[in-house]
Amino acid sequence: MEYPIWNKVEACIYKGQKSYGVRETGEVEVLVGTSSRNSHSFLTHCVTHRKIDDKGTREFRFYVDGECIKTSIVKNGTYYDVEGQKHIPRQS
Fold this sequence. Notes:
With 92 residues, the protein is an all-beta fold. The chain has strands spanning 5-9, 18-22, 25-33, 39-51, 58-64, 67-75, 78-81.
């Protein structure tokens, strides 16, 4: 099954990356403190995916504590940031 949102997670407790897919909305609450029982909400981040039209145009939004930080569009397989500029992938 294909997912339009793919999250890769790295943490010091893992030997390698962990990953998971999301279809429409993925929300993460980050808690901080001294243990799982003594934790306090630090922030929530959320990524959403919506189909805009029948031509395959998709919109992605990233939120921190309910505020939209970034919006992107994928149209005809090309990624655009919110200002409509074509995204040039980062070279590894």
